[in-house]
Amino acid sequence: MIKFSVVIPLYNKEEDIINTLTSVLNQSYEVDEVIVVDDGSTDSAVRLINEEFKDMINVVSQKNMGVSSARNRGILEARNEYICLLDGDDLWEQGFLEEIVKLIEVFPHATFYSTAHTYMNEDGNLLEGKVSKHEDRRSLTENFSETFRTNYRLVNSSSVCIRKSSKVIFPEAEQKGEDICVWLELGRKGSLAYSSNRLSIYRLNGSNRSVSVHSEAIVPCPLKWFYKNKEKLQNEKNYESIRKFIYSNILITVYGGFALSKNYQSISSIIQLMKKQNDRFYLLLYPAYLVPLKLLEILKKLRRKMK
C-alpha cells in the first residue's frame, strides 16, 4: 500500500487553513501523515488547527524563514517516500490522492507526479485553466521543460507529489521562481507522470498569496539556476528546450510582472547578469522600460483569458 506524507507550509492563513486540511482528510484514499510547518505565524491559525483536528495533524513550528524553508523542513520531517505538497490556502478534490496512486502504479519509475488544476476566484467559482498537449487522461512527460514551456501551469506547489529519495531542496535564499527551479531539476532527473483530471484547486484569492510586485531588485531563480548549471546542461539532450523555457520565463517575468509594477531595478539586474554571461538575449528586455503600462495590462489580461 502506497503511503503519503502531505507537507503544508503555513504563515498567517487562519481564514483558509481549516478548509485546506479538511480537503486533505476527506480524501477517498486515506492519507498517512499530514505535516503543517508553522513558519512563525502571528494569527490564530495554529490554535484553530489544534482545536479542530487535535492529534490528527503534526504541527511543526519554526521562526519565520520563508515558504521554501518551511517546505524543506516538512520534507525532512516526512516519514514516507511519497510526499505531496499543498499550500495552506489551496484545496484538493476528493479523488486527488487516489489519482496520484494510479499514476504511480502506471508509471512507477517517474520522478514526480501531478494532476491538472482549476482556479477558484474570489466568488468561489471554479475556472478551468488550459491544459495543452495532454489528450490522454494519464501520460508521461519525457521532455519536461519543453512541455512546461508551452503549458506553464502544468505543475505547481499544490498539485505535485515528489519522492523523498529524490532529495528535493527548495532554494531558501530566492524570492521569485524558487519552485520552478525545483520542477526543472526534477525534470532533468527524469520524467513527470501527469493526469489531465483537474483535482487540485488553486485559490486566486487565498490569504497571503505571493505577488510579483517588489520594490527591491530581484533576479528570478530560474535564470540563476540556468547560468549556474549551464556547462552541465549543454551536454544534455534537452538543453535547447531548457534554454527556450528560461528565455520564455524571463520575458513573462519582465513584461508581465516587473515592467507592469514599475520594478525597473529588477529589470536592470537581470540585464546586467545577462551581460556578464555574454548572453545577448538581454537586448530583448530594453523595450520593457518604454512599453506603456496600459498596453502591458491589456496583454496580461489577454494572456490570462487565453489560459
Describe the structure.
This protein folds into 2 domains: 4-203, Alpha-Beta Complex (Spore Coat Polysaccharide Biosynthesis Protein SpsA, Chain A); 221-306, no CATH class. Helices cover 38% and strands 19% of the residues. The chain contains 11 helices and 10 strands. Strands 1, 2, 3, 4, 5, 6, 7, 8, 9 and 10 form a 10-stranded mixed β-sheet that branches. α2 links the parallel β2 and β3 (58-62). α5 (144-150) packs parallel to α9 (239-258).
E-strand count:
10
Number of helices: 11
Percent of residues in beta strands: 15-25%
Shape: globular
CATH superfamily of the largest domain: Spore Coat Polysaccharide Biosynthesis Protein SpsA, Chain A
Task: Give me the secondary-structure category.
Answer: alpha/beta
- What is the arithmetic mean of pLDDT? 90
CATH class of the largest domain: Alpha Beta
Give the terminus-to-terminus CA distance.
37 Å
Tally of individual domains: 2
Named CATH topology of the largest domain: Spore Coat Polysaccharide Biosynthesis Protein SpsA, Chain A
CATH architecture type of the largest domain? Alpha-Beta Complex
How can the largest sheet be summarized?
A: 10 strands, mixed
**Helix share of residues?**
25-40%
Low-confidence stretches: 209-215
Radius of gyration, Cα only, in angstroms? Answer: 19 Å
Query: Which series of helices and strands comes N to C?
Result: EHEHEHEEHEEEHEHEHHHHH
